[in-house]
Design brief:
By secondary structure, this protein is an all-alpha fold. Among the domains are: 167 residues, no CATH class; 73 residues, no CATH class. It contains 18 helices and two strands. The protein has a two-stranded antiparallel sheet with strand order 1-2. The longest helix has 24 residues. It is globular, with a radius of gyration of 24 Å. The relative contact order is 0.08.
């Protein structure tokens, strides 16, 4: 039986939330709110108003239908659409995704676009279920501890642990917040399910991210310039010195100038007291466009090749071997685990003293493609 929407479960939770409360006529001027106790206040975390995003998303799914007609379509007697859109209560993440799947986008296909492949957890968990929501969030967090995720999401460790284990299902705003806390890819997730223009509160951030990605694709050295601006030695300069960044990353001064102009236009840096300063969100995730991401990887491999030929110091190695399919899969997972640990070390490393490039490849030489 194909699961489309948990209307019965939602009606049950609605009755529980409002048990023993007198019936009242809801009007546009009503300001009372009734959030479930499991949802913490998430009005502004990580510069995103998650309640507003959730409200806009649910409003978009309703389309041209009236709130009453949409509520009736879902099987409700009350005007649940009004209460969702005004933040009086929220559907769970699983029920919200079921809504998207029924009235908007194929959620399974959208998750494949988000990952760029079929995630392993989706073979055993329905993404429209509470178990699937937990598996998705747990996969996104990678090696991050529950304490770290709770701190980023501004929730208790108890709540984060229950959501990640599937013991409880987060409401829609909390789910969106957890996606951002676990992966910093909320904008990509939303864009895979709905046109960014349908969520006005995310439009500016999406446009800024799109501009930053275009710069990373078209001028890859700009990302190295960002890293150079984070160095302690640059921070100690009395003023910006033309050519200083070029020497720090080994590029011509013309490349430094072009990248700085591009970063200013993309609002990734600004000028303060005669120096360039990196904005608060300097890292650009380039996975959203798989084709451009592959081109970018190839570009940095070319840089590594050039530095190898030039005799630059570093770790340069290769190994050719025969191996079983099972052990090749184990090596791939070991590779990913190493990369995640490397990212953790980098994120915690102080002071910033050098700009470094990591490139690695592990693949079978035969031309077979994974299915």
């Amino acid at each position: 039986m194909i699961r489309t929407f948990h209307a019965q479960n939602l009606r049950k939770s609605e009755r529980i939330m409002h048990k023993n409360r007198p019936m009242k006529r809801e009007t546009e001027s009503t300001t009372e709110t009734s959030l479930p106790s499991s949802v913490p206040p998430l009005s502004r975390v990580n510069d995103v108003n998650y309640e507003k995003v959730a409200s806009e998303w649910l409003r978009h799914l309703r389309g041209k239908r009236s709130q009453v007609a949409f509520s009736r379509r879902l099987g409700y007697r009350s005007n649940i659409a009004y209460r969702w859109e005004t933040g009086r209560c929220w559907p769970t993440a699983a029920d919200a995704l079921a809504l998207v799947d029924k009235f908007g986008t194929d959620v399974r296909a959208a998750i494949r676009r988000f990952y760029g492949k079929d995630p392993s957890w989706m073979t055993s968990a329905d993404p429209l279920s509470s178990e699937g929501v937990a598996a998705f969030l747990d996969d996104l967090r990678g090696q991050s501890s529950i304490a770290d995720i709770a701190r980023r999401a501004n929730v208790s460790r108890f709540a984060a642990a229950r959501w990640l284990s599937g013991d409880a299902s987060p409401r829609l705003p909390a789910f969106l917040c957890m996606i951002q806390a676990c992966s910093r890819r909320l904008l990509d997730f939303c864009a895979c399910l709905v046109e960014p223009a349908a969520l006005p509160s995310l439009q500016a951030a999406w446009q800024q991210l799109t501009t930053a990605r275009r710069l990373a694709y078209d001028a890859p050295w700009s990302q190295a310039v960002l890293r150079a601006l984070e160095l302690d030695s640059y921070a100690k300069l009395p003023a910006h010195e033309p050519g200083w960044i070029a020497r720090a990353i080994g590029v011509p001064v013309s490349v430094e100038d072009a990248c700085l102009h591009g970063l200013l236009a993309a609002d990734q840096v600004f000028c303060r007291e005669g120096k360039y300063v990196v904005n608060s969100h300097p890292f650009v995730d380039t996975r959203y466009d798989p084709a451009r991401a592959r081109q970018l990887k190839a570009w940095w491999l070319k840089v590594a090749e050039e530095r190898l030929h030039a005799g630059s110091p570093g770790v340069w190695a290769y190994n050719l071997f025969s191996v079983s399919e099972r052990d090749l899969a184990r090596l791939e997972e070991l590779h990913r685990a190493y990369f995640r640990e490397m990212q953790r070390i980098v994120s915690e490393s102080t002071p910033g003293e050098r700009v470094a490039l990591f490139c690695a490849q592990l693949f079978a030489l035969d031309p077979r493609l994974k299915t």
